Amino acid sequence: MSRTGFINARLVDPASGLDTLGNLLVEDGKIADLGPTLFNDSIPDGVEIVDCRGQMLCPGLIDMRVFTGEPGAEHRETLRTASLAAAAGGVTTLIVMPNTHPVIDDVALVDFIERRARDTAVVNIHPMAALTKGLGGTEMTEIGLLKEAGAVAFTDGDRSLNDAQIMRRALSYAAHFDALIVQHAEVPELAHGVMNESEFASRLGLAGIPAAAETIMIERDLRLLELTGGRYHVSQISCAASVEIIARARRRGLKVTCGVSAAHLTLNENDVQSYRTFFKLSPPLRAEDDRRALVAGLADGTIDVVVSSHDPQDTEVKRHPFAQAAFGAIGLETLLASCLSLVHNGDLPLMRLLSAMTHVPADLLSLNTGRIAAGLPADLALIDIGASWIVKADALHSISKNTPYDDRRLQGQILRTIVGGRTVYTRE
Amino acid sequence: MTNADTQTSIPFPHRHLLGIEGLSAGDITSLLDLADTYVLQNRQVNKKGTALRGRTQINLFFEASTRTQSSFELAGKRLGADVMNMSVSSSSIKKGETLVDTAMTLNAMHPDLIIIRHGDSGAVELLAQKVSCSVINAGDGSHEHPTQALLDALTIRRRRGKLEGLTVAICGDILHSRVARSNIALLNIMGARVRVVAPPTLLPKGIERFGVEVFHDMRKGLEGCDIVMMLRLQLERMSGSYVPSQREYFHYYGLDYEKLSFAKPDALIMHPGPMNRGVEIDSAVADDINRSVIREQVEMGVAVRMAVLDALARNLPNERSL
After folding, report:
1. Distance of alpha carbon A270 from its chain centroid, rounded?
2. Residue of B nearest to A210 (CA)
């Protein structure tokens, strides 16, 4: 029996509100006991000791929106390299999107992801399965069988399901399995642009994507949800109007949840500057007012989860004129540190931020993790929330280096990441 | 030898000309003054100068162009440069990678000046970061076309003696127009009053914050104008996607004598070309020698491009090192 004792830790569990100095005991990969009085008498024999030196020990983070290149584009990212980046970011569970080649729209492919993750990755990985076959937007996938095989939710990833009839049926059918439907909300016909529609885009001569592309799709889906029941989640919202729409729908009693990416919480359209393609995201970075509304929406609980939207793209598809460049930025490794700036600024309580990255996504996806409690897997992160570091793209663990935070100073260092009791990352 | 050849430096402290944005009124005045000398030189029998002797100029056009490319070619040759034209049709390049690669390849041949036109906004700036010579933007997507704005300014200044205080109406497809963006920027810097006239579907978001007055009614927009600047509207945008039809567009936004009558009696008519006669401009108006300066714009184009090439070449390394 392997036993590890974490001593002198600031134990933080956002689910229970616990925030205390104390110790934690891990036995055989599970949390066995914890608290301020644990080990008061003496530390039992045979326990390996990790001295946390007063730093924060919290549940490992859960990132429910990650793209990799496996299968099909392993030169961009594999499940293993994504997991190494995750571990370095304090992320102990990541959810991969079905936008691969082939698309994860079949039981055999869900099996493939689970097997490859088990064999190669250092953190927990679960797939979301495609909502429509081949992401084609016309035929539902085998929602029941895929869920049984291990798919934690259903989405077309970075594509919007545009056909209202198919969306209605998917919501209706999935409700019976209590399956979560995740939408990338964007009316495709309004989203031919490459950045936020604004004066700034007009000055750059770039075609814009209006916020209405997002709000119209969310409003439509919510009307459908009223007809069908079921659980509907917007993968990431980008504008102030969407925050309002979600809040209003909640008041009407709809089971709607939503996420926001760390980039949308910390960056805005002005970061595009002179055509910097690492800031070309979908949905696009919006105005500063939108960013502030997203932070407020997260603080008041309208926004449920924070994701990295980690999307590795190599320079071959990024070093292009802005309109031709691929969308997407990596973010696993900077997920928490980038968002901690909001905590340090006083815009967001620490507990709220951690909730949005731990027990809230865990509950949404029915994962048995995301909390510090006896009996749960020891998925933990040890974090010095005050330490600052400068992001160097080349030093990140992802194969692709398309980070929007290159050379930025962030505050918050992951010291150690533990998955199932095993240390998978330690900072030198 | 002309005046221009003997000047050792003009106050134009830039390595590239990527846009009007970022230039000062002084920069623009310097270029226009220098261009004036080249207008005279170009009207001589011997048009050849030596300012770019020994220099290599490459015209790299990713978008088809007759007017701008030949204008740059002539400008370079009249200054004594060795000029090479490269037209890379968009179908033959596999987009971006080859775009940067093409620039790197050309750069390895040690050109002194590269003139680039590309269909994507920001493409010229991207390439300017990859090469070690001076880069001139000959039009990038819907972003900027600085030499067009300069030649328009030269044309106006020679006719009216100044730019400051004039009212200029820019009419047509502002949304997609790099000519409009560069002209709006330049005219604002030089103290002109700028109006834009277009249907709402052909105006970019936030245009009212560009330092312009916005008009949807062409008669009101032209009222009291000194200059009427027409823009080209691509035919494929006129069949229901942005405006309902050519016929309706011409009815409301085509320049004819009736609408022109709202402008000042001596208002000048400009067009960057190529024109769609009968679509955005009535043929007779375009050819009216008393009003239209469209052909003069072409002449000024060569002089302005000579001035830009000359000014940038003076800042090139090892120039006139004694």
Report:
1. 24
2. B205
Instruction: Give the rounded distance of the alpha carbon of A312 from its chain centre.
Output: 14
How far is Cα A332 from Cα A396, in angstroms, rounded to an integer? 10
Q: Which residues of A touch B118 (CB under 8 A)?
A: 321
Half-sphere exposure (CA, 13 Å, Cβ side) for A75? 4
- Asked if A26 and A49 count as a contact pair (C-beta separation under 8 A), the reply is no
Can you tell me whether residue A22 is helix, strand or coil? strand
Using CA atoms, how far apart are residues B304 and B299, in angstroms rounded to an integer? 9
Per-residue DSSP letters for B258-271? HHHTTS-TT-EEE-
Q: What's the token pair of residue A89?
A: 């970011």
Q: Return the residue matching tokens 């009696």.
A: B265
| Pairing of β A56-59 and β A380-390 | antiparallel
Instruction: Report the residue count for chain B.
Output: 322
Q: Residue B205 carries which DSSP code?
A: T
SS3 state of residue B15: coil
Give A262-317 pLDDT, tens digit per residue: 999 999 999 999 899 999 999 999 999 999 999 999 999 999 999 999 999 998 88
- Please, are residues B62 and B119 in contact by the beta-carbon 8 Å criterion? yes
Q: What pTM did the predictor assign?
A: 0.93
- Report how far residue A418's alpha carbon sits from residue A123's, in angstroms, rounded to the nearest whole number: 9
3-class DSSP state of A232: strand
| Alpha carbon of B70: minimum distance to chain A alpha carbons (Å) | 25
Residue B320 is predicted with a pLDDT of: 47
User: How far apart are the two ends of chain B, measured CA to CA in Å?
Assistant: 20
Nearest to B121 among A200, A317, A323 (CB): A323
CA A343 → CA A90, A337, A339, A354, B98, distances in Å? 17, 10, 7, 10, 44
**A198 chain-B contacts, CB cut-off 8 A:** 205-206
Prior bond to B274 cis, omega within 30?
Answer: yes
Tokens in use for A39?
């080990």
Pairing verdict, β A409-419 and A422-426: antiparallel
* N residues, chain A: 428
Short-list B150, B99, B85, CA closest to B128? B99
Please answer yes or no on whether B209 and A199 come within 8 Å at the CB atom.
yes
Given an 8 Å threshold on Cβ–Cβ distance, is B97 in contact with A206?
Answer: no
Q: Measure the CA–CA gap between B141 and B134, rounded to whole angstroms.
A: 20
- Give residue for tokens 């990255």: A357
| Residue numbers in B near A319 (CB within 8 A) | 96-97, 100, 126
Tokens of A254: 């709809």
Summarised one tens digit per residue, pLDDT across range B217-267 is 999 999 999 999 999 988 777 777 899 998 999 999 999 999 999 999 999
Distance from CA of B266 to the nearest CA of A (A): 32
> How big is the CA angle at B96 (ends B204 and B87), to the nearest 5 degrees?
90
Judge whether A221 and A272 are in contact, CB under 8 Å. Answer: no
Nearest-by-CA chain A residue for B126: A321
The minimum CA-CA distance between B289 and chain A, rounded to whole Å, is 34
pLDDT tens column, B172-201: 999 999 999 999 999 999 999 999 999 999
Query: With contacts defined as CB-CB under 8 Å, which chain A residues touch B143?
Result: 204-205
d(CA B142, CA B175): 8
Is B95 in Cβ contact with A324 (below 8 Å)? Answer: yes
Residue of B nearest to A203 (CA): B143
